[in-house]
Amino acid sequence: MIPCRPRRALWCAFLAFVAAAPAAAQWSEGFESYADGSLLDGQGGWHGWDGVDTQHAVVASQFAASGAHALMLRAGSDSVHEFSGYDSGHWTLRAKVYTPSSFVGRAYFLVLNYYVDGGPYQWSVQVAFDGDQGVLEANCGAGTPTTLPLVLDQWVELRCDVDLDADLVDLSYDGAPVGSWPWSVGPFGGASYGLLQIDAVDLFSDAVGAPHTTELFLDDLELAPYQGVVGSAYCFGDGSGALCPCGNAGAADEGCANGTGAGAKLATFGSPVVPADDVVFHATQLPPGQPCLLFAGLNATNGGAGTVFGDGLRCAGGGVKRLGVSHANASGAASWGPGLGAQGGWLAGETRRFQAWYRDPAGSACGTAFNLSHGVEIVFVP
User: Fold this and answer.
1) 157 in a domain, yes or no?
2) pTM to 2 decimal places
3) Same domain, yes or no, for 167 and 242?
4) CB burial of residue 209 (10 Å; 0-12, 13-18, 19+)
5) Please, which residues bridge with residue 218 across strands?
6) Among 182, 210, 193, CA closest to 13
7) How far apart are CA 197 and CA 44, in angstroms?
8) Radius of gyration of the chain (CA)
9) Last residue of some domain: 184, 209, 225?
């Protein structure tokens, strides 16, 4: 089923029964407990594909998303970590990825719903990093892949939200949605024999000399219970509140339209629990490459309907706190958090309103060259 690896296809139609087990505790891997320069296979539950360890996945310190170490995935790498007990519920599997601008060839992030050394195998997720074409490529339950531009020379998040009870996986890259499809059909569709469990992750690069894959880095892998949307969106630029300033209404549940023709959206994930400080903010449908400021206020402006500001609507005000500037990637997405609580200063029992304010110099609808997303309101708890 994986076109670059024909040896696997012999088993892709094999259905195996795996007994249910209680939901497992979360798993994380930051590569900090391994010696710099050591081989990954044979450490921490990692091993080579089919139980054959390789010398190509190496713990390295050239780049790290956190701590001192990350994994350097080189040509010939094929490292597997198996799981047990993830056979119900809603889970998030994420990894930080660093793709150097010098990267060429192809490397893969694969998630299997069934794995045994020697087979059978069954995939649910296949993500390829294609350095030659400069794209991330994912087959989202169909034969034709979805592609996004690779984000180079910075750490970005690859995220799979897997709802086993609903038989659904949502894939995103650097905050931009890639696709959603039934977990059981596999990346290419039609594999209705797929099992509703998360059984293994496989980190793989094309073979040495096939033809020329160089290094790609991964860090901060985690498999944890899904944390859903937190807070309530309000103050849309779709005419449901105040009118956008020059007839530049966005579609439903967006901000006022910007130079891309769409309105920016702000999504928040995590929990409202103050000590957890785990809220993550994702702005999408921004003008690519432009700076975007996330800010928080105490009040919902104009009773939550918003007031005209630039090409958009100001939704949050009063005691404003700036939470940082992030530049939108090539897909028009920007992210902030977690860990913003100390900077924002929110306490249990308080309500804060959040909004993204961004530059829009090309095609600005009203000519002010800036715009805003809709607002999000979060009530924080102890």
Assistant:
1) yes
2) 0.65
3) no
4) exposed
5) 71, 97
6) 193
7) 21
8) 22
9) 225
